[in-house]
Amino acid sequence: RFLDEYAKYNLTFWAVTAENEPSAGLINNYPFQCLGFTAEQQRDFIAWDLGPALANSSHRHIQLIILDDNRLHLPHWAKVVLEDEKAARYVHGIGIHWYLDFIGPIQDTVVPTHELFPDYFILATEACIGAHFWE
Question: Which is the catalytic residue, given 40, 85, 126, 135?
Answer without folding.
Answer: 126
